[in-house]
Design a protein that fits this description.
DNA Binding (I), subunit A; 5 helices; 21% helix; elongated; endonuclease
């Protein structure tokens, strides 16, 4: 089971195992904001299993520039929709093909469905008469979220909604 860790300012910081979260709570470093139904069994007791914890002290995270793009991060940025046809996307495409000198940067990678990826091949958008519905760019550093939040647990949703409204 996984536990959402919120920084002292209620922004999502990471996702850890529920055992790690319980240790943080037992050492007085965090408070439980939401629990799971199944407790953690210790040799002497049953301990409530934390689903969401809040750190007591703010942890400063330096994110001056976004990390290098990954397939997962490009799909997340583009809402898992093909940039060319708006169908569900599972792959990424180089707007300027690598065979034509394109790099693997935030500005040259977009989410793409398998059909469009196969049709595009190593052609340019001009050669196909295609256009991009958006300008691909690196996400701002304050938009960073743990990758586990690609598929958040239901119990986390009120805390993620709270974090995004600040």
């Amino acid at each position: 089971m996984r536990t959402l860790v919120l920084n002292a300012g209620y922004e999502p910081l990471s996702v850890v195992t529920s055992r790690r979260a319980a240790v943080l709570v037992m050492h007085g470093k965090a408070s439980v904001l939401a629990e799971d139904h199944t407790p953690i069994a210790t040799p002497s007791a049953l301990v409530p299993r934390p689903a969401v914890i809040l750190l007591h002290h703010y942890v400063r995270v330096s994110r001056r520039r976004p990390a290098a793009p990954s397939r997962r991060s490009i799909l997340r940025r583009d809402g898992r929709l093909c940039t060319y046809c708006d169908r569900p996307a599972a792959t990424v495409d180089h707007v300027i093909p690598r065979a034509r000198g394109g790099d693997s940067s935030w500005e040259n990678l977009v989410a793409c469905c398998g059909t469009c990826n196969a049709r595009k091949g190593s052609k340019t958008l001009d050669e196909l008469g295609w256009t991009l519905g958006m300008t691909p760019q690196a996400p701002p550093h304050h938009v960073w979220m743990p990758v586990e939040l690609d598929a958040p647990r239901d119990v986390w949703m009120p805390f993620l909604t709270h974090a995004s409204s600040h």
